[in-house]
Specification:
heterotrimer; A mainly alpha; B mainly alpha; C alpha/beta; A: 14 helices; 2 strands; C: 6-stranded mixed β-sheet
Chain lengths: ~350, ~290, ~250
Amino acid sequence: MERSLTRDPGFWIMVVIGLVLMIMGPILIDMFTIMQITQYVVLSVFALSLAYIWGFGGILSFGQAAFFGLGAYAFAVSSISMGDTTLPLVLSFVIPAAFGVALGYFMFYGKLSDVYLGVVTMVVTLIFWKLANHTAGPEYSIAGVRLGGFNGIPSIPTINIPGQPDAWLDPAQLFRFFMGVLIVVYIALRILIASDFGRISIGIRENETRAALLGYDIRRHKVIVFAIGSGIAGLSGAMWATYQSFIDPNAFSMEMSAKALIWVMAGGVGTLLGPILGVIGLQWLTLQMGMVDFLNSLVVLGAIMMVLVLALPKGLVPTFKSLGIAGWTLWRRGRGVSSGVKKVTSDD
Amino acid sequence: MDYAIIVALEMIRAVAWLVLLAAGLAIIFGMMRVINFAHGEFLMLGGYTVVVSTGAGVNEWVAILLLAPLVVGIFGVVVERLVIRQLYGRMLDSLLATWGLSMLMIGGVTLIFGNTVQGVATPFGGVRIGSYQMPVYNFVLIFFAIAILLAVWAILKFTRAGLIARATMQNPNMAETLGIRTGWVYMATFGIGSAVTGLAGGLLAPVTGVVPAMGASLVGQSFITVITGGAAVITGTLSSATILGSISQATTFWAGPVYGDAALLVVALILLRILPQGITGRIFKRAL
Amino acid sequence: MTDAEKDKGYRILRTRGLTMRFGGVTAVDNVDFDLRDGELRCLLGPNGAGKSTFFKCLTGQLVPSEGQVMLKEQPITGLNTHEIVNMGVGIKTQVPNVFDGITVYENVRLSARRKNTAGIARDMAEATIEKCGIKHLIKREVGQLAHGQRQLVELAMVLAAAPDLILLDEPAAGMTGDERDRLAQLVLEAARSAAVIVVEHDMQFIRQIAKFVTVFNRGAIFREAMIDDIMRDRAVQEIYLGKQADAAA
């Protein structure tokens, strides 16, 4: 079935756009804008983590921020104490993923579903947030790095070239590196989704009973999907930490989880491109709103979320897609072309 | 000896606190299966109603017992008509839409009132128990927690309105064919649930500082209490509030408030793991 | 499995004292059931007789209140559905459980993929789809098919996994005459290489496939005999009519 992935023009277009942006970006665009875009790139990786587990695994998590924050803190602590950022990047994926396995096991083998799942993921994020906020004193440190409580951890090192702790990446290189990560994550997820593992995950999302009736262990599948999403979220947390050189308990905030949900809802559950567009759109909107005095970001976020749920339950991309298809069909009918059934062959 | 009494009373207060926080939400979730994520902000609205009206010279008790439930109740009805009505049966969508509402409310209130903490005087003073002091207001909270539970139970069990409400929730189609206007029932239920929440917010205003984001820390506890309680309104809320409240308060006495908060969350997780449908999803299944 | 071994007592499916209670209602009452390897058995009985509940106890969708279920002489009581399925059971539920959002081909292939490599799964899927006569639907999204067609898709999914025991709950429901004939053909053919249990109401369909029949009533086994004897049995007629008479009263 990987065949159909390599034949999908959409996939190649995305990869090419990504590569072009990655290589040509810093050359054609000014540094200030590049640094803006870097932020979008980091948040896009975060968005993809939820887009994957929700859209392709049927797991609606209200606490993706838990893993985002976990990855950020893991990176901060290990990079400051080690002085090099290479291993910390790996840890920022592995540690949240491990936690994802544990939490996933707890939830899915406990047959939690829907609402209850949402509440548990939210509670876990709350726990992290509370704990992070209360670690202000000097006695709260890991590997010699103070956790800083609500003050957070400052002076987080920038990514350096592996093996050369003093060779930091400049903004242009950082942008390219992050774009590279985004492209790799995108490709990896596309391959995963197109694989049989991914198809079964989609089957589980469609009809759990039937998936079980086919002999698949649903719980195991969900744990794996959830853990992968957790690792990716953690990685994006590390990217965020290094980009800002600073991290605080807001990484665990409900707002962070809410943003992830909005990006995916706005972009469309069941696509990968959509949430990325959601990130760009929303962040741009927040930026514009920041310049306007009479509205604050919460009002905007809240209003958008409500509009999305009430008016566009499928999200922007699928809605436009449906509108597009409807328009196309009408146009073809109007031109007297029959939209008959295509001849079906079994080897497509 | 007096220390033991203090501990016991504080544990009861902690339970009452959770009951107050959760009662309105439990009515709405238990009866309508709707998740109101703006619950914390409804509490906040109750608090602000008290702050604003007492600031304008209204008697504190009138503000708490009359105005707060009234204002939030009416607001609830409006929200139900405009938002919730579109989302029946879509549990997750109602969660997301009300989450949006919550952010909208926090942002809106911040714009109007700013971010500073507003205070309301705590009525009464303290009472001596042995060599310890305890605010009399604690008893007020406990009293109203019990009163609300009893009132809701009585209404549901003994009045015609309660019967109609229960019938509608259990089988809306059947209720419609019997001539019950289910739309009105939903609206009234959501309104009453909001009013109870408003009352709770008003009652809690003297205890916590009133600030736009106060809902954020309260909503977690409310939700956890309701979801761990399960579908039954009275028994569910009471059982989960009792377990969570007493354990977390006991832990606070033993190790401090941070651990007390953490204990509540951990116990909730354990309860949900053992009883994935909440306490009354398995035990007391047919109870109110 | 020689004939001698068959008669010696190996049963592919056995239940002993199987009981299912819901609150105050006993839906399945102390049922002892046996199925020989390769046998085709129909389960009949009026509505509410407990057939579907019994069925769900076999598939792991319900955990019996009392009693035992043995598959291939191994106890399976209380096992998860996927564990039971992986022991070689194919299940078709009363309400079709299929993957609505994907194609017929994908549905069947995912079933075959469970125990086979990708290449073999592909071939099995195509062959089974052809055999079930739904090749013209192969690229269609299952959610858009008619009820009878979806039943056939589900049947194809079951057959594609080549199970040793096939459980079908009302497979003929909602089917046209042609679809039902094809279904009967498929069931008879499947019964040549697997044991089959069919729960059904549709008398025309039953007449096409039934040999040995178990009749349920009020949660217990009422009678077990060959289909012709059952059709002539006054008592059996009465339990069906009894329901109608009660309803008319």
